[in-house]
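Curious: why this fold?
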Amino acid sequence: MNLWKKYHNAQTVSDALQALAEAPGTAVLIAGGTDLMLDLQQGNHPPVHTLVDVTAIPEMTALEIRDGELFIGASVPHAKITKSQIVQEHAAALATACGLVGGPQVRNTATLGGNVGHALPAADGTIALTALDAEAEVASLEGRRRVPLEQLFAGPGESTLDPRGELLVGFYVPLGESNQASAFKRIMRPQGVAIAILNTAVWLQRDAQAEVIADVRISIGPSGPVPRRLRKTEDTLRGKIFNDETLAMGVEVVVEEANFRTSRHRATKEYRHHMAGVLLEETLSMAWLRSHANEGVFV
């Protein structure tokens, strides 16, 4: 049984968009395809007429410093991101997160764009990018736009992008500066493939003149129907001296702010409330240490 009728290897972004628009039936983008192929084989995806492969588009496989920002193409696989020195230096949380996705074979194939495009509230790469204040570059036949990452998600597994008219080209992440660092941690349960019970990403900036959290961004997944930052918790920590009392305040607020529920696939609401505090403390502490040690270089 054929799972699709036509396979189109796009050479440019406009080529891919044209193929999506002109397909006579359902058209779907494919890069790593680690989830899509399983869904097609198991009958969990509607029939597809055209698969549009975007792995040969040069700008979607780029990983580089571009105009003062870190650019990661949507078709870059997780393994390449994890091993990249510039990602380790400027976005350590993302390097760690991508190194935890699936197993080695999955990481060699699965892409960051696929991780984000699935719009799951606990996707490791997505949670890291959210805390890193990333923006997505979105292309259509009418042009291109940059979108804050949080605006890509409409609900669990629901993207705001038009599947027949828009394409994720890649992601822009601010370069790390002095006294800034990030970290990522998660708790997982192996169930055929590893899924996160909880994951946490933190970016922070330390006041160079004092042991104070000058700025901080936090994302915990799943803490609601879509990936998001926990801004109330951030506001509680921002401007505070980094000590046990501040960490305890952050833990108290994050438990109130995060919208946990019991999941038969992950854990109970009560367990996740408890572990969210543990992960927040550990991740904040790791980012804080990194902000002292070689200005946030991956450790």
Notes: The two ends are 48 Å apart (CA to CA).
